[in-house]
Amino acid sequence: MEQPAGVTNYLALFWQADVVVKAVMAGLLLASLVSWAIIVEKSVALTLAARADRRFIDRYRSGRTATETRSAAARLLTAMTREANGLDWSGPVRDCVEGRLRLILSQVQRQRRAGLTFLATLASSGPFVGLFGTVWGIMASFTSIAESQSTSLAVVAPGIAEALLATGVGLFAAIPAAVFFNRLTAKVNVSAGILGEFGQEVMIGFTRAAARLDRP
User: Burial code of 58-67, b = ≥16 C-beta within 10 A, e = fewer?
Assistant: First the structure.
């Protein structure tokens, strides 16, 4: 079976490129593969985590026994309950529970954002790395033109095309990284907001329970 002409041409351009340009494109393609692995893993993990949090919170609000213990919402409730258990609901205790809430939220956000820094780095630096390969390739092309003493299009075009391919590879790696970095960051922020609201709801529940105990 014959390969599409476009694929054959791109592969030929890659193999004919200068060693530096070739290294730039290979590095960008490797970074793109890593970014797609992160995108798939984080998309699945964040979806499952958000689903587990919602399931636990729904059970808590309905008064049913929440059997899910691995969700972040379950860990949040357990930590806050342990912090307040057996103590008077005074100002210092309330401050400790609020501090525990902020600590758990910070840990969850840090855990769920793990790997997104790579996407942000690739999104911002990928085009410039590709541009570096392009500039290097164009410099090599002009050097070849000077050595051959020929300015015909047949001599100039292949080198320029090889150089421009590096910019294309840089954009190929950077655009998905930028899109999914924004999408995944938004998902992390939404899930953190839901957990924060749940934590405040638990605080209100503790306060109401303490008020009922204080009644004569």
Answer: ebbeeeeebe
Which pLDDT does position 25 carry in this prediction?
85
Give residues with Cβ within 8 angstroms of 75, minimum separation 6: 69, 104
Q: Which residues contact 55 (CB under 8 A, 6 or more apart)?
A: 68, 71
* DSSP-based three-state secondary structure for 65: coil
Locate all alpha helices (DSSP H) within 17-87, ordered by sequence: 19-62, 72-84
Instruction: Indicate the number of domains in the chain.
Output: 1
Check residue 10 and give its pLDDT.
62
For 215, the 3-state DSSP assignment is coil
Rounded to whole angstroms, what are the CA distances from 106 to 87, 93, 98, 109? 25, 20, 12, 5
Which tokens go with 83? 């912090």
Q: For the purposes of burial, counting CB atoms within 10 Å of the CB of 154, is it exposed (0-12), middle (13-18) or buried (19 or more)?
A: exposed
For 108-153, the DSSP string reads HHHHHHTTHHHHHHHHHHHHHHHHHHHHHHHHHHHHHHHHHT---H
Low-confidence stretches of the chain (pLDDT beneath 70): 1-8, 10-15, 17, 65-69, 86-90, 144-159, 210-216
CA torsion through residues 58, 63, 69, 73, sign: positive
Identify the domain containing residue 32 by its residue range.
Answer: 5-61+70-214
DSSP 2: P
